[in-house]
């Protein structure tokens, strides 16, 4: 019965299909002439760097989610409900970071992404090295959630600033593909 929550996808699909406008940019992405010029613009060195950076970031980021349950069980820190608490902390903090990203970016400037990656690493290290109590696991999850929120929003922000606005939609699509591929490979690479 827990998987019945996925029925919530049906209204989201219907709203996306019937309520969202289809813009001219989407039509140009399908056009063959625009696609060739767009690919040249899309794979500039800065854009490729960001694709690779966020591919590896997601590979490491996803490792937290795949391993937190094993760590809680191995160290006898709690039950599956407790794993859900840590995972929820990550999601809630990421959500809050998403809301406040503009203010964070204004406050930290060019260092925003570095601070986000620092929080990701600190959260992972806190859990792996010092996570012998549940509160430390939650604190690591909060740090990780902050970094995760910054990283996920920054990926879209930086790729949209890097490429010409005529190929932003395509660049975001390619970026999300790289990020998803990083998540897919994460269990294989992280857990060997």
Written overview of the protein:
The protein is mainly α and 192 residues long. Helices cover 83% and strands 0% of the residues. The chain contains eight helices and no strands. It has helices at 9-19, 24-30, 32-42, 45-74, 80-108, 112-130, 134-162, 168-190. Helix 4 runs parallel beside helix 6 (112-130), helix 5 crosses helix 7 (134-162) and helix 7 packs antiparallel against helix 8 (168-190). The protein is globular, with a radius of gyration of 19 Å. The mean pLDDT is 84.
Shape: globular
Helix percent reads over 70%
Q: Identify low-pLDDT runs.
A: none
The helix/strand order is: HHHHHHHH
Major sheet details: none
**Gyration radius, rounded:** 19 Å
**Number of E strands:** 0
Q: What is the terminal separation in angstroms? A: 33 Å
Structural descriptors:
single chain; 192 residues; mainly alpha; 8 helices
Blueprint (SSEs and pairs):
Layout: H1 9-19, H2 24-30, H3 32-42, H4 45-74, H5 80-108, H6 112-130, H7 134-162, H8 168-190
